[in-house]
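Suppose you are handed only these lines of text.
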Amino acid sequence: MPIFDSHIHADTRGWEDLRTLSLFGTRAVVTCAHDVFDFSGPQSVFDHYRRLLNFDCFRLRTNHIRPFVALGIHPEGIPHDGVDEVLSRLPELLQQESVVAVGEIGLQNGSDWEIDVLRRQLQIGKDLNLPCIVHTPQKNKAEVARLVMDVISQVGISLDLVVIDHVDIRIIEAVRDLGSWMALSIQPFKISEKEAALLVQSYGSQRVMLDSDLAGGMSDVLSIPKAIFEMKTLGISAEDIRKVTYDNAVAFYRVAQCLP
Ligand SMILES: [Zn+2]
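From them, the structure of the protein bound to zinc ion can be written out as follows.
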């Protein structure tokens, strides 16, 4: 069964991990910009983007994984200086080959500063008709996710263009009610593969994607294959499994023509 991992951070993982992803069926990924370190200014952010687009796409391709890229300012990676410069260049940078989304954007603690940066990036997604990958935090998830959903509604971006990420039992009903896409990140500190399988069983496969959110912290290159195992054990249909691990990502990121 082919896997499209809808949200990873390839720059944080070594060659062997990318190879393991490939060996266990990953055929495509979206690798997202994030909070690599304390960005001192706009140039560090642009260098991070350049690495994703060049070096990491090369490493993924060499491991037989089709790379797609999301560019944006992560709420924990807002540069000390030069946010305006990054945001003013972002529309042009998003036109590059293999870039399919604005992301990872979102809120971490929900400060006014974060809300402003999120709002401006959702507006860019709306103006360019590009999908947006929206992070929600572990701490105070329900409260901060509510703020995220308020900003999405205020900007008026189409919900076809929004995936709310790191959804768990605390916010799944609210995201369902909103009507956007949702992603379940299977990670030791987020949800287990078993929980993900149970959520798919309860809420169905409509507008749901699984991702590993592979990053520099504790995460598991086999999380999606393990979730597939759990979904099979629960008797979830092959069609629904394929939707949450491949087809829905192809549809959301609108990349069918780029895949074999
Ligand atoms: Zn992430």
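What can we learn from it? The longest helix spans residues 42-62. Residues 7, 9, 32, 34, 104, 213, 215 surround zinc ion (CB under 6 Å).
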